[in-house]
Specification:
Elements lengths: L4 E9 L5 E10 L1 H18 L2 H7 L6 E11 L2 E10 L7 E8 L5 E8 L7 E13 L2 E13 L3 E8 L11 H8 L6
Antiparallel strand pairs: 1-2, 3-4, 4-5, 5-6, 6-7, 7-8, 8-9
Length: 184
């Protein structure tokens, strides 16, 4: 149908890593904003809760891992690992992960959901890319192509930017904060 929708969203995270979204601007196809993008934000917020993160965590309780190869990712060497979900769950995926060989950080994820998200969806393929900024690795982009029974292929691109990590508090600033900002 050649429709386009765009949304700029500010994300804030709690100390327990639960995400909260604030829509900064929206434009384009209103139905996609309401039924797709807003639903994605609600799902992402729910998935970021501590209980849900455990159910989808990239660990041996949820996945089997098999070393596939090494490869260059940009200009950095990475370990490419096949990932197989241990159960048929929509929060899990089947595919490959790239682990940066120097930092042992997640650098890329590519695959498909372990369980089809809906009757209307025939297939989903996604790529999550991460980037290093200083000592930290952050999401850089998410791209997905979804084949839908009536509409055909639909693509989604998310670009992440303007990260502002919270610096850890020193014991002095933590004690000042606990006494209402007064230091002794």
């Amino acid at each position: 149908m050649n429709k386009h929708a765009e949304m700029v969203v500010r994300v804030k995270g709690d100390a327990d890593e639960t995400k909260h979204f604030e829509v900064v601007s929206e434009e384009g196809w209103k139905a996609a904003q309401k039924h797709v993008l807003q639903r994605m934000l609600a799902t992402e917020s729910e998935a970021s809760s501590p209980e849900m993160r455990l159910k989808a965590r990239l660990g041996p309780e949820n996945y089997e891992f098999h070393m596939a190869k090494t490869a260059l990712l940009g200009n950095r060497m990475a370990y490419v690992i096949d990932v197989v979900p241990r159960r048929h769950d929509g929060r899990l995926f089947e595919g490959q992960i790239w682990i940066d060989a120097q930092d042992y950080a997640l650098a890329r994820v590519e695959g498909k959901p372990a369980k089809n998200p809906s009757f209307w969806t025939t297939s989903v393929h996604f790529v999550h890319a991460y980037q290093k900024s200083g000592p930290f690795w952050f999401p850089a982009s998410t791209e997905s192509v979804t084949d839908v029974r009536i509409f055909g292929a639909t693509s989604l691109t998310i670009h992440y930017f303007d990260y502002t990590p919270n610096l850890p508090q020193t014991s002095e600033t933590a004690s000042a904060a606990s006494v209402g900002g007064i230091t002794q």
